[in-house]
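Entry 12.
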Amino acid sequence: MPVLRHPLSGATYTLRDDGLVDVDNNGLRGTFDYTGRFRGGDLRFADPHMLLWLAGPQLPAGHNIRRNR
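Predicted 3D structure (tokens):
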């Protein structure tokens, strides 16, 4: 399960199997989808860029290879 730590706040963003993201910031926890929509918990805000980076649409395998032309 992928986990990212926010470089400024130190909050941890954990991708769940169902595609939602659990955010833990100084003991407050919240659950969000990749668009930033709040789904539950005490923490009611999260960095939208971190959510999108972790849980947003991903390129298909093999499409992120840089090609020299």
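Annotation: The two ends are 36 Å apart (CA to CA). Helices lie at 48-55.
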